[in-house]
Amino acid sequence: GGKDRRSGLILTIPLCLEQTSMDELSVTLDYLLSIPSEKCKARGFTVIVDGRKSQWNVVKTVVLMLQNVVPAEVSLVCVVKPDEFWDKKVTHFCFWKEKDRLGFEVILVSANKLTRYIEPCQLTEDFGGTLTYDHMDWLNKRLVFEKFTKESTSLLDELALINNGSDKGTQQEKERSIDLNFLPSVDPETVLQTGHELLSELQQRRFNGSDGGVSWSPMDDELLAQPQVMKLLDSLREQYTRYQEVCRQRSKRTQLEEIQQKVMQVVNWLEGPGSEQLRTQWGIGDSIRASQALQQKHEEIESQHSEWFAVYVELNQQIAALLNAGDEEDLVELKALQQQLSDVCYRQASQLEFRQNLLQAALEFHSVAQDLSQQLDGLLGMLCVDVAPADGASIQQTLKLLEEKLKSVDLGLQGLREKGQSLLDQISNQASWAYGKDVTIENKENVDHIQGVMEDMQLRKQRCEDMVDVRRLKMLQMVQLFKCEEDAAQAVEWLSELLDALLKTHIRLGDDAQETKVLLEKHRKFVDVAQSTYDYGRQLLQATVVLCQSLRCTSRSSGDTLPRLNRVWKQFTITSEERVHRLETAVAFHSSAEKILQECPEQPEAFNEMEQFDEIETVGKSLLDRLTVPVIYPDGSEQYFGSPSDMASAAEHIREKMKLVSLKKQQLTQPEATTPES
């Protein structure tokens, strides 16, 4: 770093006791002399050969070697000799005599006298100067500079090759150049960081030495290194910026190519294997289990499609991000890829959804068909069982249940038709998708199956309706039969009640002829009511016979109802006739008695015939006798009118009237008895 009085650079060659390799020394000198600029070299070098620790032969060899290495640049060679050595040797070789041949001046000088030729401030402490110099620090810094220079120069060449390759005309050359030289041998960021650190140290004009860091002025080579480093850094930044743009473009192109490749993978799979899977799935099944199996298969297909749809979503997001980046040259291609991908995915998704809806509609159709079939089976089973109800109420309940089942079947058939028509409409729309093939044949099989199921259910329902009509008529006839039987039994009960009323309450014979006639008239009306009840019961029993013949069954109650009716009616008739006879006898008795009792006693000629009194007495006795006689029925049973007290009361009234008639007779007969005496 020191300079001589001519401002030439000072080159120090320290020699040691060990053997010095001239080849290594020559290489080292060549390297050191390559550092200064040409302007510095023109001012010449002052070479200090420190031979204080070396032999004379070595020193001489080094001096002679300078002639071959740097003859033109060396202006002065100062050989620093030991204080008491070489004195005898110098006479054998005088350097000053060889100045013309060597091309530079050589002087032998002691270290303490070196200041005669070089200023002390330009000499290091080893030679009694004050110039601060740390060789290891300089060496390390120089190694860093050399490494940076080498790496940056190599990196600049590589980046230039990459960048220039990216600027080639054809896309093929561009791709080939990028592929071959894309990655630099060193990291540009690391080299730039090293250069910035080196430049920062050079610009600080201070170095940290091994002795604690004494400040000193930089040498010319260091000042020269600053513009070199700055120039290399500028070039690196420029090429690295271009390189980053190339990387960005390549990354974008690579990303675009990857997206395009993935898009084509998705499109090719959806239009290839995916569509083929849908082409093979066209049936709807012929039962719930078959439809469920098809649904399960479709879910497997959907699962495979879902994986590709997930790729589609990811690709769509990547394309959207690239579109937002706004590179106009890629917008058209990206939009075309996005549109193609969306069209294929949406079309395939629509086909999957259509297929899923079709299978769901088929499952619902078969479910309704199965429910309706079970309802028809239940209705048919109910119709096939013979009706054996206990009474009319159970028949009504059974008939109501039958009607409810038939109504449920009607609703089920209506629901089946709606589901079937909806399914047929969807199948007719299937041709618009077509899955790339003609589905007419497959659709015809599905349509025939659906229509066949609906027609079969309609026929089964019609057969059940016919059977229900027959069963309804039969059950209504049975209801009527039970009603007739019940009403006929009721008629028997009514007639029995009339008979009972006749025996227990119709006991009065009247106090006079007029009252007895009224009772007789009421009795006839009472008999008319009984006659109507009997006729009504007979008609009901006749209807029961007709219904039993129609139903081909034997009534459980009509067999004993008719004999009961006839028996009660016979008893009623006998009782009624007895009642009529008694009332008519009473009328005759009262009429005759009242006629006699009302005749005037001054007209005895009216009673000339005494047989009238005898007749009245005979009728009265006959009537009294009847009151004591029971009514005898054909089965030998007997019944009395009223209670004994009732009969006694009626008999007493007749006897009183007979007494009056007898008294009247006595009154009429006494004058006849006294007339002769007088």
Automatic annotation (TrEMBL):
Residue ranges of every copy of the CRAL-TRIO domain listed in the record: 1-135
Key words of the record: Repeat
Pfam families according to UniProt: CRAL_TRIO_2 (PF13716), Spectrin_SESTD1 (PF24915)
Gene3D superfamilies for this protein: 1.20.58.60
One Gene Ontology MF term: phosphatidylinositol-4-phosphate binding
Superkingdom in the source lineage: Eukaryota
PANTHER family, per database record: SEC14 DOMAIN AND SPECTRIN REPEAT-CONTAINING PROTEIN 1 (PTHR46607)
Family under the similarity heading: Belongs to the SOLO family.
Designated name of the protein: SESD1 protein
